Amino acid sequence: MTSARETVLGRVRDALALAPTPATVVPRAYRTGRVLPDPERLALFTDRLLDYRAEVHPCTADRTALVLADVLRDHGARRIGVPAGLDPRWLDAYDGEVCQDAADIPAPRLDSLDAVVTGSAAGCAETGTIFLDGSPDQGRRALSLVPDLHLCVVDLSAVEAGVPEAVARLVPERPTTLISGPSATSDIELERVEGVHGPRTLVVVIRTDR
Q: Domain LUD, which positions (predicted)?
């Protein structure tokens, strides 16, 4: 017996097969090519992140491990999750438990982690947005959404001035997650509530010489 759902979907498929498919031209007249010197881009990106209530730590690449260890210690993170492709040298100074994520680990088990550490694909200074694209150093989306603390490493060289420039760095076929501060929403009385749809705390380590 055919279900109502199958009947409806079948009719949709038939209609799509019969409908004409003219080529659609999407205008791409965006303002592009904007650039900012490194100090201005860093200042703008930091300002936007702080406005979103993120915690920001600029550092040089050779201090990545020390800064990450200090942040994790300050937040009391003794058990952290990492994607399989994260540079292990970033955690050389961390003395807690490191759990490497895998696709077969159920999402609810990620809730037992104190924090997650990931890399990033790109950033946008104008909006204070960080882009993750599922690359080996960033992992699957659940890993960056379930733990209550997300410690994200961003290279200043991958931070663009505007949105079109940042999006141009991405591969369209990859799953993209956009992060603009900790997860937050407002209740019926417009009181800000954090940690509803993702991490309650976002810490961004910006490596200024990579």
A: 92-206
pLDDT tens per residue across span 139-180: 999 999 999 999 999 999 999 999 999 999 999 999 999 999
- The structural domain count of the chain equals 1
Residues contacting 113, CB < 8 A, separation 6+: 79, 80, 81, 99, 146, 147
Contact between 150 and 115 under an 8 Å Cβ cutoff? The reply is yes
Please report, as a single letter, which amino acid is at residue 201: T
The whole-angstrom separation of Cα 128 and Cα 126 is 6
Query: Is 152 part of any domain?
Result: yes
Q: Which two tokens stand for residue 44?
A: 């703008």
pTM of the model: 0.84
**Per-residue burial over 1-34, b = 16 or more CB atoms within 10 Å of its CB, e = otherwise:** eeeeeeeeeeeeeeeeeeeeeeeeeeeeeeeeee
Q: What DSSP element (H or E) covers 8? A: helix 4-18
Within a domain: 6: no
